[in-house]
Prior knowledge:
Number of helices: 20
Shape: globular
Low-confidence stretches: 396-404, 455-459
Structural class: alpha/beta
Mean pLDDT: 87
Helix content: 40-55%
Amino acid sequence: MSSPAPHLLIVEDDTGLQSQLRWCFDGYRVLIAGTRAEALAHVRKHRPSVVTLDLGLPPDPGGVTEGLATLNDIRMLAPETKIIVVTGNDERTNAVNAIGLGAYDFYLKPIDAGTLRLVVDRAQALFNLEAENRLFQEKNQPGTPFANLITSSDNVLSLCREVEKVADTDAKVLLIGETGTGKELFARALHDLSRRTESRFIAVNCAAIPEQLLESELFGYEKGAFTGANRQTPGKIERADGGTFFLDEIGDLPLALQPKLLRFLQERVIERVGGREEIPVDVRIVSATHQDLQALAAQGRFREDLYYRLGEVVLQLPPLRERPGDAIVLAQAFLKRYNAHFSKSHRGFTPDALNAIDQYPWPGNVREIDGTVKKAVVMADGPVISAKDLGQQDASETPRLSLTLREVRKQAETTAIRKAIAQADGNLSQAANLLGITRPTLYKLLEKYELKPNESQSQ
């Protein structure tokens, strides 16, 4: 069963524009209001996801007082609603001020239905992403395994389901992902969802401890084992007995220590440094790395047998650039968090900031966007955070991606047609077979998208 179409509220006192706009938004349930009272009545009853708002409303059609008051009232009643201010070129300053008061975006008259539709669709897409994340967070209240995970991305939600499947087993799990993708968060979720949750979760970062100290850190040491060893000290593995031991950045484990860790994984016993007693340890091993362990093994820098022991189950964590929409959802969440932490009152991001957040690849992933928003909250002077505040003014100039289904479908179909014709070496019958359509249908698509067979072949 398909979900109902979202509500779009158009607040406009010009009856001609009302009539023009009413029919521009297929796929939306369009509501029309000509006054602040009518607009607020619709907001209370229907909770529209997007509102287009003309600032010049009666009884002040020549000014902006009533429009800005309507903006504030809608923000109070439905803070999740995305408000697009529609105004004339001579009122651009007022539109920018409206952004400062919490509007999502502004659109300058004269109205082009197609362009305004694109702005509305982008606002609706953001509303949907935030709604999906709110639903996810409601299912994962504080104290639950994924409480700190912020996402609306299908591939991350799929990863969560994989974690749930493997969590209550003793299979050794290897988490692979770029720096900043949340490997420790998922390691803790594996522990919290397991039957070992009442016991300890102990973590060691193999890259953060000097090689000469790492062995004693992992396995412990006996009194007198080396200068300064004044008492018997259990290692981290031993302290995790009954629980989960997390080896972060396992790719940086020194080659000399790898046989000792391999023996522990095989025999489930350890020997402290300077000791001869075998100590049994019952622990679940989870490890993580940003490196390609198979490539390291081929170079002789990581034992292949250790890789296979650690990776009974391998989970790949997607980078932020492969999590559609999550960058904006994360930025909004971090803005709220740091507003509260630093007693700030930034109302949101400017449209250029949202575009920059969406377009930037975030090589540092969640950790980078967290730090970027944190700095912007502290340093920004205005009521809203701009691309400049984020240090992303160049990215903000990148053309916005179209989110309309029509454009997405066109891009997908033209790409598939070009590839099929190229693969068929220009033979349209073979290309139609590859595409699973008839030859006449292919001709219609070529005509629809104004593609020529030779042009498609050369793409």
